[in-house]
Amino acid sequence: MKHGGDRGPTLTEQRHHGSDSSIANVVPQFPKPSVRTLFALCLITALLRLTMLLLVTHEAPVQFFWEAGFEASRIGASLANGYGFSSPFGVPTGATALLPPAYPMIIAAAFKSCGEYSLASLWILFLVNVVSATLTTCVLYRIGLDIFGPAVA
């Protein structure tokens, strides 16, 4: 029986030779994930997202991005102009509870610092989204690791 170093017999060898080892020897063992693995995963996802953003923004005009999902940007513009959390549809409608406040407030901060509906504010918001998505990748990886183990993570 060939053992292949100190790893023990393979599953096939155990089946053919009638090994009476416990089930723990049959279950594949995965290496313990490291921080380096998580960092590499997050770096890859962030680079893929940035690459896609560069490809998409190169082809489409800036205004295209502000017209899609416009409610949040309209509330952000309203906040940036001092009208409060209002007017999600571009006309003065008064206060609104259409969206949760966090993202329109981030949009308002970008508008205040770089100008309303500008390319610079668009890129700030894109970068906020990439960072948020990358952090989500970290959280999902840890959840998968804690609940299901390294094979799923």
Structure description:
The protein has helices at residues 11-16, 35-59, 62-67, 70-80, 102-114, 119-148. Helix 2 runs antiparallel to helix 6 (119-148), helix 4 (70-80) packs across helix 5 (102-114) and helix 5 (102-114) runs antiparallel to helix 6. It is built from six helices and no strands. The model has no long low-confidence stretch (mean pLDDT 82). It is an all-alpha fold and 153 residues long. It is elongated, with a radius of gyration of 25 Å.
Secondary structure topology:
Blueprint: H1 11-16, H2 35-59, H3 62-67, H4 70-80, H5 102-114, H6 119-148
List its salient traits.
single chain, 153 residues, mainly alpha, 6 helices
Largest sheet: none
Low-confidence stretches: none
Distance between the termini: 34 Å
> Can you write the helix and strand succession as a string?
HHHHHH
Apparent shape: elongated
Helix content: 55-70%
The total of beta strands comes to: 0
Structural class: mainly alpha
